[in-house]
Amino acid sequence: MSTPRPSQIPRGFRFAATACGLKKTGGLDLALIVSDVPACAAALFATNLVQAAPVVLSREHVRTAARRMRAIVVNSGNANCCTGREGMRASQDTAARTAREIGCKPDEVVVCSTGVIGVPMKVERILSALPALASSRSARGESFDAVTHAIMTTDTRPKWAAAACRIGGKTVRVLGCAKGAGMIHPNMATMLAFVVTDAAIAPALLRRALREVAARTFNSITVDGDTSTNDTLAVLANGASGAPRISRHSPL
Fold first, then answer.
1. Contacts of 139 (CB under 8 A, 6+ apart)
2. Residue 189 CB neighbours (<10 A)
3. DSSP run (H or E) holding 74
4. Residue 239's closest CA among 190, 186, 195, 202?
5. Containing H/E element for 115?
6. Is 33 helix (H, G, I), strand (E, B) or coil?
7. 28-62 pLDDT, tens per residue?
């Protein structure tokens, strides 16, 4: 797929990716999505009985900071699952370092991991890479393209989509990416997926819309009958388009 055009990038979002050494191939394995202003957030997570540390932590962060989320940080190469207290500490440290670098609170960061299960996370590699990663973030399509590659594991190609509409005379943009090739089975379909939009919408309405859409998309996909421990579908809406706030639900 081609790189997103400047007109497809929602206003007020910036992206970055790097290789911090988690993947044996040396490929991109750490990605960052940042909203310049506090964004409303909604997310759906793994329903598996076994859930990775970043899922447990991010569920709590979305619960407490749904009206002021600032960032999503994602690593590939290690799922940070079945890693005990050290695994949870790794996710917490990742959120804290990201928050320090972009100027927000740790609970305003969603943390996601994907990759091998049961292997201790070499979190020091993530923490060392985050300052330069945060400094390099930009709104360029090439930066978003790097994010789509950094979240891949067994995928053979990146997956992203963009859309736009007019609300109150303003253009509202939606941009999203996902990873996942195997271990896909409802419910959530085993994937990581991230959507950003410059629409203005209340968190409760955003959560409702996300649940309705996921029910007929993510939760309708089966590849191999396996579920996972790290599923995350997160949406950030920062209102930077200047369009009127969406305050009424319309059935799909």
1. 6, 9, 13, 14, 15
2. 23
3. strand 69-78
4. 202
5. strand 109-116
6. strand
7. 999 999 999 999 999 999 888 889 999 999 999 99
Pick the catalytic residue: 83, 94, 153, 190?
Answer: 190
User: DSSP assignment, residue 201?
Assistant: B
Burial (CB < 10 A; 0-12, 13-18, 19+), residue 248, is: exposed
Please report, as a single letter, which amino acid is at residue 179: K
Distances (CA, A) of 16 to 84, 132, 142, 151, 185: 29, 10, 9, 12, 30
Residue 113, token pair as written in the block: 């991991």
* Cα gap 47→45, rounded to integer Å: 6
Query: What's 44's DSSP letter?
Result: E
Compute how many other C-beta atoms are within 10 angstroms of the C-beta atom of residue 142. 11
Contact 78, 87 (CB under 8 A): no
Q: Which residues pair with 174 in a beta bridge?
A: 163, 197
Kindly compute the dihedral angle of the four CA atoms of residues 182, 4, 34, 160, in this order, to the nearest 10 degrees: -20
Q: Using one digit for the tens of pLDDT, what is the confidence trace for 217-238? A: 888 777 766 667 888 999 999 9
Query: Which residues, including other chains, have CB under 8 Å from residue 248's CB and lie 6 or more apart?
Result: none
Any catalytic annotation for residue 229? no
Spatial separation of the C-alpha atoms in residues 138 and 85, rounded to whole Å? 34
For 142, left (φ over 0), alpha (ψ -120 to 50), or beta? alpha
Tokens of 65: 């900071």
